[in-house]
C-alpha cells in the first residue's frame, strides 16, 4: 500500500549568531535520559510521574542532537547545522495509543542552520500535517497542540538571547 500526503514545511529566518541561538534553543528543552527510558520499561507508573517532571518549555524535551555541520566537514564544507530531536513521551502516548503509526513522527525534528553570518533558518514539518494523515481525531488534536508548542518554543527562543 502506498499513500501520498501533503506536509506543511515551516522555515523561519532569524538574525542571530548561530552558537548563541543554538544554546538558547537547547536551554529551553527538558532532558530525558537513558535511565528515564529504562524506567518506562521497568516501572511504568513511576515513569509517568518522572516524565511529567522532565519537560522544559511547553513540556518539550531533548531526545538527541545530530551535528550535521560536523558531518558536512567530511565533504569539505564548513557549515553550522544541527538537527534537534524533541518531544515528550507522554504527548506521544496521547497519539500512539490511538494509532501506533504516529510513532513514525514522534519525537519531532527541528533543523537550525546558518545561511550566512548571523542569519539562520529554523525548519520543521508542521506536526498536524504529519499526524493528520492517520484519520484519527485524537491524533490530529495532539498534532495541533504540537503545532502550537513548536511556535511558542520558537518565539521563546528569540526572547532574551543568552
TrEMBL record:
CDD domains noted in UniProt: DUF302
Protein name per the record: DUF302 domain-containing protein
Superkingdom of this protein's organism: Bacteria
Stored Gene3D superfamilies: TT1751-like domain
Domain DUF302 stretches: 75-125
Amino acid at each position: 500500500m502506498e499513500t501520498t500526503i501533503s506536509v506543511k514545511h515551516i522555515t523561519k529566518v532569524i538574525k542571530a549568531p548561530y552558537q548563541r541561538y543554538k544554546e538558547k534553543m537547547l536551554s529551553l528543552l527538558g532532558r530525558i535520559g537513558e535511565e528515564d527510558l529504562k524506567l518506562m520499561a521497568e516501572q511504568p507508573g513511576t515513569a509517568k510521574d518522572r516524565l511529567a517532571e522532565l519537560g522544559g518549555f511547553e513540556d518539550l524535551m531533548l531526545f538527541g542532537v545530530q551535528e550535521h555541520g560536523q558531518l558536512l566537514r567530511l565533504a569539505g564544507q564548513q557549515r553550522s547545522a544541527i538537527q534537534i530531536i524533541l518531544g515528550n513521551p507522554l504527548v506521544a502516548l496521547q497519539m500512539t495509543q490511538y494509532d501506533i503509526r504516529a510513532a513514525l513522527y514522534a519525537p519531532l525534528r527541528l533543523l537550525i542552520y546558518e545561511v550566512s553570518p548571523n542569519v539562520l533558518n529554523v525548519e520543521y514539518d508542521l506536526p498536524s500535517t504529519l499526524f493528520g494523515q492517520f484519520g484519527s481525531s485524537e491524533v490530529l488534536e495532539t498534532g495541533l497542540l504540537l503545532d502550537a508548542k513548536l511556535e511558542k518554543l520558537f518565539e521563546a527562543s528569540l526572547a532574551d538571547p543568552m
